[in-house]
Design brief:
alpha/beta, single chain, globular, 11 helices
Length: 293
Amino acid sequence: MKMSLKKKIVALLFVATLTLMVGCSSSESNEQKVTNSNEQEVVVATSVAVTEILDELGVEVSGVPTTSYELPENTKEATKVGSPMNPDLEIIKSLNPTCVVSVDTLGSDFEKQFTENNIPSMFVNLSTVDGLKETITTLGEKFNKEDKAKEIIKELEDKEKELTLTNKENKEKVLVLFGAPGSVMVSTDSSYVGNLVKIAGGNNIFESDSSSFIQVNMEEIIKRNPDKILIMTHAVPEEAKKTVEEEFAKSTWQQLDAIKNNKVYFLENGYFGMSANLKAIEALDKLGDILYE
């Protein structure tokens, strides 16, 4: 993903010095906790999930993504810094941030652009529930919120244990699909929703060690013949749902037991998305209801 820079970099010597002191890039100084000595922390989040985590930890967020999703009440006065997949570097720079927190799915291009613009940044892993817990721990340490981080993680782990004790492994074959306007892909067990299915004891018929999403292969899908189909939608949910329904109208899909038996489930967009988030506990509950109905 590419992004053009509109202006030359403008950075005061003082800000550059501050960046070296408390920046959260991949440099050695990045290992230090953010401290609030003479200058106030200015933290920017470029994704909804990151915004929610920082807010739950009690970290004040000065910049948030431009999104249709509801953000925490504490961030309503924060500056909008552009969409999660295309943050506006000029707006971010204007805030003189001490730390910009983004998800690592944005890719190395964004990390390079943040570095080139002297924007102190860190990229966190939210592709799985384990990644979520690791991120909560890392951010808790970074912003001196360790106790709150441990509290959040304990709640997540208690729910995982509850599911393990309550639910036996489900032998039903599950196909997880990712729907976006004009596109349908298969979500493997390496995707966030695929990871939730695995935690809940579900049997995802597509596994991968390297890819979260793969192209639809109808021959393989028909061969594996899922008992249930779970669908996560992205971008514009209603348009994404329409795309999936149009795909399912094709005769090849009508051969599947899941469709014949009306075992197709559109997952709630706020709970099941691209990135792991603090709604993981509720998401596991909802998933358990579907898998063990």
